[in-house]
């Protein structure tokens, strides 16, 4: 009886302690819910895919955290934009949408897929790599879709948002090669059976080496790519290897300067490495559990043999 009474007293004590902490947190944060306008960069830009129905658009608005439409600039990305920026099919249905919030120089580029299960071909780091190639950095980008899609219209929407901003027009050649990079990354993940993180690691490490070595010829680009494939123990078909060489040779010919975004490339590398290490750790843990139960079963069998 006494034990039961003590148990309920302890539970009640924890409950009131938790309530007190929650009340204090709410009180201290009560004034932080007011949205303010960044007068340097303007309002965040929310870009909606043109195929969204009114109900889906409202759903996406909520997913992207838009509480007051007056506190963002809302635009729509269309098939014409898809054709303009990445030479896509202008008749495509476009659902994936994005919110872009510009930040101070040096803040970094952060991608947040609000609906990761609905963005089927592109990871956060794939978006980040493509956007850095296109010349976009120092921003928070939220991506969402109400239905499963590849994720390309969100990329086009981000380009359009920057072009409609004040003094931020993007180089169309750079956006096209950035889309080629994203398409090749998706191809490698699908046809070569590579994990998306491994594809991102490969592209990021190649860019970092290009920034360090500043290759002047296609042969030097080829050597960097071959070295990274060997280092990362990635095997590609001759066709995909050539596509990779042609892609980075095109970037070299366009004078895309990865030296300017080395810090953000390092951030991508660290994120990928952390995820790979976590995955390896998880597999090791699961293997240990599996081994334990196998040994346990064998021990039980031994008792009856």
Automatic annotation (TrEMBL):
It holds the Pfam family DUF1002. InterPro entries: DUF1002. Keywords: Coiled coil, Signal. It comes from the Bacteria. Residues 251-278 form a coiled coil. The keyword Coiled coil applies. Residues 1-27 form the signal peptide. This is DUF1002 domain-containing protein.
């Amino acid at each position: 009886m006494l034990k039961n009474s003590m148990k309920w007293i302890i539970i009640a004590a924890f409950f009131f302690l938790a309530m007190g902490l929650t009340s204090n947190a709410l009180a201290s944060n009560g004034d932080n819910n007011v949205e303010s306008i960044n007068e340097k960069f303007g309002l965040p830009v929310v870009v909606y895919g043109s195929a969204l129905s009114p109900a889906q658009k409202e759903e996406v608005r909520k997913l992207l955290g838009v509480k007051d439409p007056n506190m963002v600039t809302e635009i729509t990305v269309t098939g014409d934009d898809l054709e303009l920026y990445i030479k896509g099919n202008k008749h495509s249905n476009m659902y994936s949408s994005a919110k872009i919030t510009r930040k101070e120089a040096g803040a970094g580029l952060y991608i947040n897929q609000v609906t990761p299960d609905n963005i089927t071909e592109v990871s956060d780091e794939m978006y980040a790599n493509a956007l850095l190639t296109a010349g976009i950095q120092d921003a928070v980008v939220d991506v969402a879709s109400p239905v499963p899609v590849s994720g390309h219209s969100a990329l086009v929407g981000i380009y359009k948002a920057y072009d409609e901003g004040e003094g931020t027009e993007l180089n169309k050649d750079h956006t096209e090669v950035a889309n080629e990079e994203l398409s090749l990354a998706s191809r490698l993940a699908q046809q070569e059976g590579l994990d998306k993180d491994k594809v991102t690691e490969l592209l990021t490490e190649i860019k970092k080496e290009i920034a360090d070595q500043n290759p002047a010829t296609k042969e030097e680009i080829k050597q960097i790519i071959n070295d990274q494939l060997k280092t990362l123990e990635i095997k590609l078909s001759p066709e995909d290897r050539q596509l990779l060489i042609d892609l980075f040779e095109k970037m070299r010919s366009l004078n895309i300067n990865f030296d300017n975004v080395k810090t953000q490339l390092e951030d991508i590398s660290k994120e990928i490495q952390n995820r790979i290490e976590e995955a390896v750790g998880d597999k090791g843990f699961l293997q240990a559990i599996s081994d334990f139960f196998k040994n346990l079963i064998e021990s039980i069998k031994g008792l009856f043999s």
